[in-house]
Amino acid sequence: MNWDQFAVEHLAVMAQVFNELRPRVEEVADELVRCLKGGGKVLVCGNGGSAADAQHIAGEFLNRFLMERKPYACIALTTDTSTLTAIGNDYSFDQIFEKQVQALGRHGDLLIAISTSGKAANVIRAAKAAKELGVRVVVMTGGAGGDLAPLADICLSVTCTKHTPRIQEGHLMMFHAFCELLEEKMESR
Predict the structure, then answer these.
(1) What's the CA gap between 85 and 96, in Å, rounded?
(2) CA 44 to chain centre
(3) Is the dihedral of CA 118, 119, 123, 128 positive or negative?
(4) Which among 21, 61, 97, 149 could disulfide-bond with 74, CB atoms 3.0 to 4.6 Å apart, if both were Cys?
(5) Domains and CATH numbers, the chain
(6) Contacts of 117 (CB under 8 A, 6+ apart)
(7) Cβ–Cβ under 8 Å, residues 66 and 183
(8) DSSP for 90-118?
């Protein structure tokens, strides 16, 4: 492992999040407020590490982040193994999130679609299903964002590195910023 290269890439990602992506992160926080105050819910999906991130953000929304407050409606579409395996077995792994969005998504909701490459077929199909239902789509990706980025209402792409772990570190920073901004905006009187 090259610690110096690790540090350089990590710091570049942090600089991109704090500078270039900051206005879009704040825009996402405003969208989250609009969604939740309007009675909507947040749906989150991704594969592998992005699936873990989906579960992480759902836990922060449903429980609490920094403030004691009421729960915010959020569903990680990655957690119901019976649903995931039934859809994957009966239809296709490519449809595991799409079918859940079709069943659970409503106009006024928000989908956070996570794919570091922007090429995950099941996440792309979920975003397309969301668009058909009038669900706003926030895409979190890396690089050019593949076929997923054009489906975004707001796209947050870590472009300063091609390394998946660094992209995911940028996503985690943005998730935590969403949570903190959301609590500030939702709980201010």
Answers:
(1) 8
(2) 5
(3) positive
(4) 61
(5) 3-187 (3.40.50.10490)
(6) 141, 142, 143, 146, 164
(7) yes
(8) HT-GGGTTHHHHHHH--TT-EEEEE-SSS
